[in-house]
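Let's practice the habit of predicting before peeking. Look at the sequence and jot down your guess about where helices and strands might fall. Then scroll down.
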Amino acid sequence: MKNLFLLACLMLMMSCKNNPKTENKPIHLVTLDPGHFHAALIQKAMYDSIDATAHVYAPEGNDVKQHLGRIEGYNKRADKPTNWTQVNYIAPDFFEKMIAEKKGNVVVLAGNNRLKTDYILKSLQNGFHVLADKPMVINEKDFENLKKAFAIAAENKKLLYDIMTERSEITTMLQRELSMTPSVFGTLEKGTPTNPAVTKESVHHFYKFVSGNVLTRPAWFMDVQQQGEGIVDVMTHLVDLVQWASFPNQIIDYQKDIKINTAKRWATDMSLSQFSTITKTDAFPDFLKKSVVNDSILKVFCNGEINYTLRGVHAKTSVIWNFKAPDGTGDKHQSLMRGTKANLAIRQGKEENYQPTLYIEPVKNNADYAVALKEAFVGLQQKFPDVSVEAVGKKWKVTIPEKYKEGHEAHFARVTERFLDYLLKGNMPEWEVPNMLAKYYTTTKALSMSR
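Done guessing? Here is the structure:
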């Protein structure tokens, strides 16, 4: 009997050791006031270094209910369910309680952008690392506070990092990789204001599916004073990609390297019926009525375009929001980098079956170029096995195996893994912080110019 008892104890100890909920892992997540579905997407996967018990601090309301519902859905799904244990504090003094209890060491922020910069600053001041959804700032005043936040992070040896999912999209990764291959791309052109060397365009939709369900958006998402205009919101991704691809692993000084030439903004019209469909509310709230015309059309300034130079290279970024994508399509990203030997173009139209596709368009598509291209892909395949290239008329199409096509939601895990790597090493590459500042300088300065 005694031997059976000892065996049972041993089995229990082994079970606890293998159970991620009982392991002593170094990273403990705290999600603060989640108002955007991106907060939940961080927890769509489990991580070796993150404890399975996660805390949420938030005010009462639909935002936190939807967040917790998504986490529960991930825990209960049939395919690779997660096993998060949620400990939630839902009350008006949620922020003070988070600071007092300090149940975690990493604050995840994805929600109302009017509040976000203040949350970032105070979280860092109280000893937390911060993983923040974009945008971290939505105006020039907040940009000044972001500079303070990075200074505090450095002083307290904490990391502040924003969630740049588009760096993990495979066509974008390969475009950047090929732009660093002189035999294929040559060198980056300088371009002109009317013919930029780098262009990035993103088309988004208010009505969309997330984790298999139609997304319910909070009403404040359509208030640009809370969410931010398109030129400082989604544009963050595009400006980041211009920097990341054009000057890879290099420090950009926003005070010397960036010049905004022109910037413009415009609205998407949304009917009350459309608004009700995505918010599940039957009337425009008072805070949106300033943007309503004819008592029925909401003007949402979510579209924007920036023409600027980065170290003398002309770039153009543009963001467009429509209400709903045509059937069979979705959000769209298109991009062009012009080199002295070839252009690298990402297209996502009907010809590509609305899937992002990377093309190489040589300036001189001759036999010598074909040989150089195929030799370059031998090297590229060391990093991206099974990626290949095929001739399509006068251009070349990069063929990408399905294993690389993860989708937007999976990219949140890739960003989190990158952040965890930085966190466990105790630092980030030296270019990350100055380039985050450069990115937010570009978007906030452009917003001021567009107005």
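How did you do? The first helix runs from residue 2 to 18.
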